[in-house]
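Notes from hallway chat w/ T.B., transcribed later so I don't forget. T.B. wanted the structure written out for a chain they're using in a teaching module, and asked if we could keep both sequence and structure tokens in one place. Agreed to drop them here.
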Amino acid sequence: MPNKGRPREFDRDAALHSAMLVFWRKGFLATSMNDLCEAMEIRAPSLYAAFGSKEDLYIEALRRYNGLAHQLIWDRIDGEPTVQEGVRRVLLAASEVLPEGQDTPSGCMVNLATMGHGPIGTAPDAVKAARLDGLKALRSGIERAVASGELPHGTDTERLSRFYMGVIQGMAVQAYDGANQEDLAGMAEAAMAAWPVK
């Protein structure tokens, strides 16, 4: 009879989620292995066996965070009658998600990685890729708006995409510093005033 090995003593998905919250709150450098083991409710050998190194765990946690960010923020660009309304919905969704919640830290794990929270080794490439995902979502929507005639054909789609990405990154930093949902929603509406008029 084949030996199936000892079953895992923890829920890997739940443990990864807990690790994501620790990295999000403290950043890569300030997070210790003890912090992770305590939050994940596992011992160091189990952590290494399941996830590899601290850096590997960070990258996996970052990918989990980015998937959630797409569901909660970036995917909203496609759910409205116009791209303009989609971008507004993205900004307003960010204003709801970025302030500290009952179970989540404030700010954005991806953007905080640029503020001394970031990792060393190969993980910075994963951080950069996660940031570019948001920019790509905005660029895709804005390019679609130009193609459909919603925006003027001379619109600089790269510049406009980077502008709205910069707004969201600024919202993340301000949320980290204590801005609330109303503050961030005001930023979102002010940013929408810059939407080009056809």
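Follow-up for T.B.: The chain has a mean pLDDT of 90. Might be a good example for the class.
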